[in-house]
Amino acid sequence: MKLNPLLDRVVIKMVEAEETTKSGIILTGSAKEKPEVAEIIAVGPGGVIDGKEVVMTVKPGDKVIIGKYAGTEVKIDGEEYTIVRQTDILATVE
């Protein structure tokens, strides 16, 4: 199954968080923070939203930072994805 986002929506997949700290301490599953860095999987076409033209500035393959609680999580074919609006993306990572 393939996700095709609509309007200004972006499908992202979260990048796994580090399992050890810089000092070498191994973190348990509950101690890990929700990762904020994600890879873009699919991008909607943009368009007119609330009377304003929205041009998509991100593309599949970009790494981005999103807010901790942004988006809607979905599970497709055993893979977890998050769908966010382009405005929920805080920055791109190079």
Question: SSE string, helix = H, strand = E?
Answer: EEEEEEEE
Number of helices: 0
List the uncertain runs.
Answer: none
Task: Report the portion of residues in β strands.
Answer: 35-45%
Binned, the helix content reads under 10%
How would you sum up the major sheet? Answer: 6 strands, antiparallel
Radius of gyration: 15 Å
Category by helix and strand content: mainly beta
The termini sit apart by: 29 Å
User: Quick one: overall form?
Assistant: globular
Number of strands: 8
Strand order in the sheet with the most strands: 6-7-1-2-5-8
Mean pLDDT: 85
In short:
This protein has 94 residues and is mostly beta strands.
List the helices and strands and how they pair.
Layout (H helix, E strand, L loop, with lengths): L8 E6 L22 E7 L3 E3 L2 E3 L8 E4 L5 E5 L2 E7 L3 E5 L1
Which properties best describe this structure?
single chain; 94 residues; mainly beta
Notes on the structure:
By secondary structure, the chain is an all-beta fold. It has strands spanning 9-14, 37-43, 47-49, 52-54, 63-66, 72-76, 79-85, 89-93. It has a 6-stranded antiparallel β-sheet with strand order 6-7-1-2-5-8, with no helix packed on it. The chain has a two-stranded antiparallel sheet with strand order 3-4. The chain starts with 8 loop residues before the first strand and ends with a strand. The mean pLDDT is 85.
